[in-house]
Each structure stands twice: as C-alpha cells, then as structure tokens.
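so the lab meeting is tmrw and i was supposed to have these ready like two days ago... anyway. pasting both below. for each one the top line is the aa sequence and the line under it is the structure tokens. i havent really looked at them closely yet so no promises
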Amino acid sequence: MASASPAASSRWQRVRERLLAVAERLRPFYPALRIAGFVAAVAIVVVMGVRAAGEVDADELAWWPLPLALVAAGIWWVLLARGWSIVAGGRTSRHDVSLWCRTQALRFVPGGIWAPASRAATVEGGAAEKLAAVGGENVLALCAAVCIGGVGMGLGISLWWLALTPVLVVPLLAAGALRGRVRVTPDRARRGLVNYGVAFSAYAVHGVLVQLAVSGSVDVLAIAGAACLAWAAGLVVVIAPSGIGVRELVYVGLLDGSMPHAELAAAAVTMRLVMIAAELGVLLVAGRPAPAPASS
C-alpha cells in the first residue's frame, strides 16, 4: 500500500507535464481560440433565443413593459458576470467579465456542468481553488436569489416564506470557516452577496414587468419572489440545461391559484426569451475576448 501513493503521484505528474506541454503549444493560438469561443457562444445564444421566440404569442403581450424588462435583465446579467469577477479575482476585471459571458453560454449544453467547468479551468491553483471559485459563485448567487425570493413570497403570499431569508448567512459562515484556505475570503463573500443582492433585485423587477406585459396587473411582491425562487430551483436542478422547464414549472407552481394558469405559463416563457435577449446584448458588448491579465 505504501508504494501505491508514490506511483499514483508519479503518474499524475506525467499527466500534468503533458497537459502543460499541450497548453504551451497552443499558446500562440489563444487569441484565435478566444475569438472562436466568442462566435460559438453568440451562435448558441441566438439559437436558444429563436427557439424561445417560437413559444411566445406576441399578440397576447402589452409591449411597453418589455423594453424595461430587457434593461432590468441586462443589469442582472452584467452583475452576475461581475460576481464571478469578484469571487475569482477579488475585483471587477474586464477579462473575468468577458470570460464569464462567453463560458456561460455553455450552460445550454446538456449536462449542466460545462459553464462552471470551463471557468474552473481558468482558475490558477489546485483542485480546491478551482472548486472554491465556481462553488463560491454559485452558492452566493443561490443564497441571494433564495433570500430575495423568500422576502417577496413572505410579504406577498405567506409569512412562512420569510424562513428562507437566513440562508444569506451561509456563505459568510463558510467563508469565515475556510479563511486562509480558499480564494473566497470573507471580504469577497460580503462583496459578492451585495452584488448578487442587487442583481436579483433587478431580476425580480424584470419578472414583474414581464408578468405585467402578459396580465396587465400583478401582485408585485409575489411575482418578484416567485421569479427569484424559480431561478434558484433551475440552478439546483443541474440536469436541466439552463434550468429549461424547471424554472417555468416552479414559477407557475408557486403562483398557481393566484392568477390564471395560462397567463403564468405565458409569462414564464416570455421571461426566458427576455433573458436570452439580454444575454445576447451583453455578450456582444462585454463578452468580446479581452487580454488575459499579466501574471504577477
């Protein structure tokens, strides 16, 4: 048993050396590969947008809230990208924002892991650092969405939903317990939570405006809360690419009985279309390949 560990370590070292050699050979092609990745990301988002548009009945929509919803969704998307930048690098960086925008399109690929896995590959350090970066990003976003969703549902439907709000302290406690061992420091966790809190406030506004476009009048708090909790459910169910189907089902289920089922379903699908349109706009502006930061 004692000889197994050195042998395994030696094999891993050989694999690592080969991977580094391949990366070094590919280095001259990195600019072209980044451009190709950007083009592929745009193509994926466009295809998903066309599919979503085919499920929306434009004749049933009031159009005036939709441009405002698009702006709110765009703010949300930019802040999600900024959240990754804060977690991974400790500051807002064009390179990290651009990387997030391009890799995030991979969430539409079945499997649910390709977007975070592709970002993890760019994080310096060992497996623990890579896992901490992508895990921290997702946990911070999830807790912010659940907290805001709990507040909305609690004030709009039932006070019992307020029991979800303490989830906000989970990433802070985790960052404190792991202080000095991973890149998600307590300071990054605090700044990340503030960033994601603003992000999902914008997401909630987007949900309210879309439902308003469909229904004409809405319960603002209930819609805002259900939209955020539905997003959180889609994040947790990783087998559904980008939460497709899951978020729509949860959104309708949370609000069932408070509004006509058809209106809720139409709004759920329209929300996805607006989100994809916002993603495409941000990708075209902020997702263009940026120079990699100089290594210190």
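ok protien two:
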Amino acid sequence: MRKPGCRFTLSCLAVAVLLVPVLVATGPSAAAASSSACDTTPAFLGLHGMGEGPDPAQPFLADSTLLIDLDSAQNAISGAVAIALVGYESVSATDWNTLTHPSTTLEKAVKDGENNLQADLISYTRGCKTSQDRIVLVGYSMGAWVINQWLVDHRSEWPMIKGVLLYGDPCWAHGSNVGLARAYSAPGCMPASSYPGPVSGSAFKISVNSFCQPNDGVCGGGFSAKGNPTNRAKELLAALSCAYENCAHFDYWDDGPSTGDLVQGAKFMVNVLGAPALA
C-alpha cells in the first residue's frame, strides 16, 4: 500500500459563457443534438490516463483503476450516478519525453480524446434541453488534459456540464507549480489565470475540483517548475519514472477511505449532480 500524504487541491466556481448556437472545434454541437427522448440520469464521463485503455479487444472501452474506483466511491455514497468511460488512443508514460522536442504524439492523442468525448456528449444529451443535462466530466492524467482541450474548444457548450473533476492534471497551475503540458507550453490547457476553471464573464457557473498529489511529476505538485528549466527537467523525470515503478501519480486512490481524493471527488460529484444519498 502506498502511504497517504497531504495533497494540493484547487476548487472553484468557473464562470462560463451562455449557450449560443455556434459550432466550435470538430463535430456537431452536443447541445444541438436531436429530438429523441431525453435521459436525465445523472452521469459522469470519465477519461483515462496514460497506459490505460482502450482494450484492444473492445477498442471503445477505456479501463482505468481510478475511474472504476471513483465509481465505487460514488456507489457507497449514492449509487445514482451512471458511469460512461470515454475511449481514446492510449499512449505510454515514456511519451512525456516527446514534450522536449517538436512532436504531435501527445497532441494527437488529446485531440482523439476530445473528439470521442464530444461524440459521447452528443449521445448523452440527445433530445435534452440544456437545463436537463446532468453531467460531470472526470479526467485522470492525460484524460484531464483532454477535458482542458474540450473546454478550450467548446465554450458554447459549457452550460451542459454541471461539474469537472480532475486528477493529476498535466495542465495544473498553482503558483510556481505547473503540470508538464503547461510547463512545456503544449497546446490544449485552459489559461493559467483561470485554472482550475475557465472564466469568461457570464452568470453561468461550473463547479470544478482539481487534485494534485505532492511530488506528482505529471501535475507538478511541489516542483516549482514554472520558469525554472532545472525543476522542469526534474518534474519530467518524475513523470517518466511512472512507466517503470510506483510513483506519486498513482496515489489518488490510496489515501484513506473517508478523506481520500476519490471520496472527496465522489462527494463533490454527487452534490453537483443533485443525486440522492443512500438512506
């Protein structure tokens, strides 16, 4: 068992633009989906981390220990929230190395995830008014980066999202601590000034929680890598170590049955979705 440790956590109410009939990024607008019966079951759409899913035998599924355990934590609190795992191209932790030179390896995987997330949102919101949508986006590791990219490209569709939950986010920003994608100026991260939630000056609010464990080389907790090439290199080495050994990036689901990051995330998710608690 990995020992628990104190953790960095950011919470916010992110202010989003009002829904307007504009198509952004690739694919049709999820909010403009067609007229079949609306499913108002509260649900979280989960995006896996590096080295997880999709299963080659079932390429549209995405296995993730964190996401499955988060669902178990939710079930212990409510059990009323459905889980949908968004499949997308899987890459190895060794691919963090490609951030140091021009490469599209990681960026292509992020865009693949964004496109699949958009397609799943279209399916989940079909026939629904925005006011009926009950969805939380959950991303672990690269999955959190995918959610950042979706938020950047799909501003008109933020009102359909009730909450965003991020673990080990490569786009993390907290003082001098920044995640790998942000440290190496990779595309897709929301502005650091508004992290962990996108802010644009309207009355619509999205609740956002982002968790970063100390010494996690992916989200950069405690590395002070912003503007510091030496610390940035140390952060990258810590992330690369996750391809070969246990590391802080795997600690989100091992720090306590009542106060751990997964339990706190599950409570947050159940609350923002208005899901009933167990009797």
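from a quick look at the 2nd one: Residues 51 and 90 are 6 Å apart (CA to CA). The chain has one domain: 8-31+42-273. will dig more after coffe
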